[in-house]
Amino acid sequence: MKLEFHCWKCPKDAPGRRITAAFSEQGYYSFRCAHGHVHDIVTGTMLFELLAETGMQAIVDGYFRDAIASFMASYERTLQFYIDVVSRAKDIDPATADATWKHVSSQSERQLGMYIGLYQLENNAVPPLLAQKHVNLRNRVVHQGYLPSEEDAVLFAQAVVDLLQPLLNGLMQRYTAQIESFIAAQTAKGATAASAAQRTHNVFFEFLLRFDTEADDWNRPPADIRAELKARRDLPSKG
């Protein structure tokens, strides 16, 4: 799956100013455009954002099993992010938080239970969870070799973003400082990876999951997967 950049040193209509690069968990990208301009880019993108984006791209390209796996991974990593943010807000020692996470890191059911309990304590409410029918679909795909249709993938993706976007909206309203520190840490990770570069530029993308602490509106609606799919498939080929 690819992330698209445009060389800002080239004229807007210049062929070859568009560059694609494979997603990097570290958030660091280095590339040279067709005209020789070198760029070292650092992003503050969270892993769950990248996973949802790879899932969307997989639907566009017709890889529906990959799409469901990516959206499920985005769901699980968002729940982990919720746990991390709330733990930081409660002044849990990072070493303690890391040690606790090791007890659940290898089992998604344990991670889910940790999220459920924490959400209830924090909000005095039943946590939003992916419906069992969608969990069953994911299990059929991953464990039973089921080949999902495009409709399966679209409905699964919509269910995930319908759940995650409101959860992220609430986090951004309540834990802005903690989230900003996470973004800063992610950017620092990318900067460390780019240490050999003389100069890096910070770049921010708006992906399928709208996640931006500086946005004017923290009540953004979930993306419409069908509309997004149509828009992306209708995009003309770029040079």
Structure description:
- The chain is mainly α and 239 residues long.
- It has one domain (2-233).
- The chain contains 8 helices and 5 strands.
- It has helices at 47-61, 64-89, 94-102, 108-123, 132-144, 150-174, 176-193, 225-233, and strands at residues 2-6, 18-22, 28-32, 38-43, 201-203.
- The strands form 2 sheets. It has a 3-stranded mixed beta sheet. Strands 1-2 form a two-stranded antiparallel sheet.
- Helix 2 (64-89) runs parallel beside helix 6 (150-174).
- 27% of the residues are buried.
- The mean pLDDT is 86.
What low-confidence regions span 5 or more consecutive residues with pLDDT below 50?
A: none
Number of helices: 8
Taken in chain order, the helices and strands follow as: EEEEHHHHHHHEH
Overall, the morphology is globular
Broad structural category: mainly alpha
Q: How far from one another are the termini?
A: 18 Å
Please report the total strand number as a whole number.
Answer: 5
Structurally, the number of domains stands at 1
Spatial order of the strands forming the largest sheet: 3-4-5
Q: Considering DSSP H and I runs of 4 or more, what fraction of the residues is helical?
A: 40-55%
Radius of gyration computed on alpha carbons: 19 Å
Strand content: 5-15%
Q: What would the average pLDDT be, to the nearest integer?
A: 86
Biggest sheet descriptor: 3 strands, mixed
